[in-house]
Amino acid sequence: MPGGGAEIDGGVGIEQPRDLRDVRRLSHEAMATVYEVYTVHADAEYAAQAAQATFDLVDRLERELSRFLPNSDITRINHLAAGESTRVTPSTLECLVIARHMFDLTGGAFDVSIGTGLPTLELDTEDFVVCATTRGVRVDLGGIGKGYAVDLMAELLEEWGVHTSLVHGGFSSVVALEPPPGHDGWPLTLSDPSASSRVLTRLSVCQTALGASGLRKGDHIVDPRTYDPVRGRRAAWVAVPRPTESARDGSSEQQHRAAPAAVTDALTTACMLLSLDEIETLCANSPGLKAWVLEDTQLVHFPALG
Amino acid sequence: MAADDDKGNAKGQAAPSQTKKLGRRDVLKGLSTVPALGLFGYAWKKQTEYQQSRVEEVAASTQAPADLQVINVALLGAGAQGQVLTDSMLRIPGLRFRAVCDIWTEYNQKRVVNSLKRFKHEPNAYEDYREMLDKEKELDAVIIATPDFWHAPHTIDCLKAGKHVYCEKEMSTTLEGARSMVAAQRETGKLLQIGHQRRSNPRYLHCYNKILQEAKMLGRIVTVYGQWNRGVTPDLGAPDRYLIPDARLKQYGFKDMHQFRNWRWYRGKGGGPIVDLGSHQIDIYGWFLGATPSHVMASGGNLYYDPKTHEWYDTVMAVYDYDTPLGAAKAYYSTQTTNGSQGYFENFMGDQGTLLISESEVNYAGQLYRDPNAPAWDEWVQKGYVSAPKEQETKAKSESGAIADVRESVAPDQHTVPVTLRDPYHQPHLQNFFDAVRGKAKLNCPAEEAYQTAVAVLKVNEAIDAKTPLAFKPDDFKA
Amino acid sequence: MEETNLSRSAMIAITVLRVVVGWHFLFEGIAKLTSSSWSAAGYMRASRGPFAAFFRWIASNSQILDNANLITMYGLTIVGVLLMVGLFTRLASIGGIAFILLFYLCNPPFVGYFYSIPTEGTYLIVNKNLVELCALAVILLTRSGLFAGLDRIVHGLFFGRTRVATPLRV
Question: pTM, whole model, 2 decimals?
Answer without folding.
Answer: 0.78
